[in-house]
Each structure stands twice: as structure tokens, then as C-alpha cells.
Amino acid sequence: MMSKIKVLFDLKKEYYFNSLYPLYKELSKDDRYDISFRIGKDQKRFLWVFLINEKNRIAEWMKKEGYKLTDETEGFDLVVCGDALKDP
Predict the structure, then answer these.
(1) By residue range, what is the domain housing residue 45?
(2) CA nearest 7: which of 75, 82, 59, 85?
């Protein structure tokens, strides 16, 4: 039996999900792929000064929808992201 292809969708910002969802939807139809999501801080400004971390809110939503989450960045065969990664 062949091992699954490990795929990481690295979401630095929540809005990247919309553009990456079609690819996720297609890959999730195939049992050969083990798909995980990593969520970035996705900080938003409050009163133009304070940064509010949105990671926990996004993680709760994704868990509720049944997505597999991870904090890992190593050991994946394929990494999909919506923006350039600083340390790929």
C-alpha cells in the first residue's frame, strides 16, 4: 500500500482560504492525499494602533467545519500558500 501524499495549506491570512478552496476541494476528493491546514496570526488593527490576533477565531471556525489543523511545517510533500513564504 502506498503512503498518502501529505499536503499543507499554509494560510497566513483568512482571505487566502477563498482562493485556495477550489484546489482543496479537488484534492479532498482523492484518498491519496492527507490534507492539513496551518493558520497564521492573521492580525487585524484595532483603533489603527493595536494588533488583534485572529488565529484562534479562525481555528475554531475551521475545526467546526471539519478541517484538519496543524502547527507543523515540516514533513509535507506539497505546500500550498496564498502568498510568498519568508522561510519556505
Answers:
(1) 5-81
(2) 75
